Write a sequence for this structure.
């Protein structure tokens, strides 16, 4: 499996799950102090927020009314990231598939040519992909070459939005930087921004995260993410790239090119306003077998599901399972629908 297939698979899973991009912060994180506050580790809870905590939250100045936690719709999402055996407590999911594949008969044998960062790509349609948790549909095209890999999964691909705008360029080298000038991940980030500045407006993003290589684990690539945030919560309006040791910038993902429909999300959106709704949904599912849970606030993403803005989170749940003496841990994904 080549590096394109590796990162395409990882990124598709991450995009499909919406909230699953859990990365260490980069050296220069442009997020505000409020971001750090919102993303601080959540205290492990075994009961709903206390009355004093609710009153304290209510005392904060707001621009729009807070959601009524008792009427918030919470969606359960089935992903491949679970461990443990407790997901059966949901007895079905609101979102059973986070990515769907289909064929657009009207595009069979369709070919086209696009240019990006000085490269020209001759393309042939392969399939259509729907990213359910991003409310986005793209058409996948294979890059036509004289000597394509034998395995279709190892071939280079480009994903295009309906208007032809690139959504992902999954090639061995979208561009190239001089790694001799890069001593740190920050150096790599700056070099990537410089080489792609004519294609991407990096000033539109206010948060950057870098995943450094881990040589001892034979992980030799940099991965860099640029996010737009709302009141300290990351959105799925982001850009990501990978960089190999030779300086090849590859596996470029550009979900920010799609309209997620987040314009009506209030500027003062706060994850704390939805924790009671998440608590209620977990207690409804696990009942007396629930021991405790912890919301991974760093996983929170503002996204769009089925045409509705949502806040998507990952939650670690400890519970008692029949046949086990000690609690079992389950990793679940929930999304609260943000109502106007």
């Amino acid at each position: 499996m080549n590096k394109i297939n590796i990162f395409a698979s990882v990124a598709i899973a991450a995009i499909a799950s919406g909230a699953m991009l859990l990365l260490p912060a980069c050296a220069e994180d442009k997020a505000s102090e409020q971001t750090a506050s919102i993303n601080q580790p959540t205290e492990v809870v075994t009961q709903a927020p206390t009355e004093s905590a609710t009153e304290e939250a209510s005392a904060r100045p707001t621009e729009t009314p807070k959601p009524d936690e008792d009427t918030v719709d919470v969606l359960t999402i089935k992903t491949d990231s679970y461990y443990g055996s407790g997901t059966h407590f949901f007895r079905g999911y609101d979102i059973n598939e986070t990515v769907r594949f289909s064929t657009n008969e009207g595009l069979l044998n369709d070919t086209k040519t696009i240019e990006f960062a000085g490269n020209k790509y001759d393309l042939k349609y392969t399939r259509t992909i729907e990213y359910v948790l991003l409310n986005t549909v793209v058409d996948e095209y294979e890059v036509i070459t004289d000597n394509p890999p034998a395995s279709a999964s190892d071939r280079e691909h480009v994903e295009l939005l309906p208007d032809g705008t690139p959504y992902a360029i999954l090639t061995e080298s979208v561009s190239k930087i001089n790694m001799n000038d890069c001593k740190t991940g920050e150096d790599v980030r700056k070099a990537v921004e410089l080489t792609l500045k004519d294609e991407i407006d990096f000033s539109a993003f206010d948060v950057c995260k870098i995943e450094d290589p881990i040589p001892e684990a034979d992980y030799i690539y940099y991965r860099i993410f640029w996010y737009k945030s709302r009141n300290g919560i990351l959105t799925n309006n982001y850009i990501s790239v990978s960089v190999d040791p030779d300086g090849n910038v590859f596996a470029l993902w550009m979900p920010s090119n799609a309209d997620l429909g987040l314009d009506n999300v209030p500027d003062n959106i706060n994850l704390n306003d939805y924790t009671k709704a998440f608590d209620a949904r977990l207690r409804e599912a696990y009942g007396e077998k629930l021991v405790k849970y912890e919301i991974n606030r760093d996983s929170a993403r503002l996204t769009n599901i089925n045409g509705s803005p949502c806040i998507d989170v990952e939650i670690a749940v400890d519970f008692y399972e029949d046949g086990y003496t000690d609690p079992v841990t389950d990793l679940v994904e929930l999304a609260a629908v943000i109502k106007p």
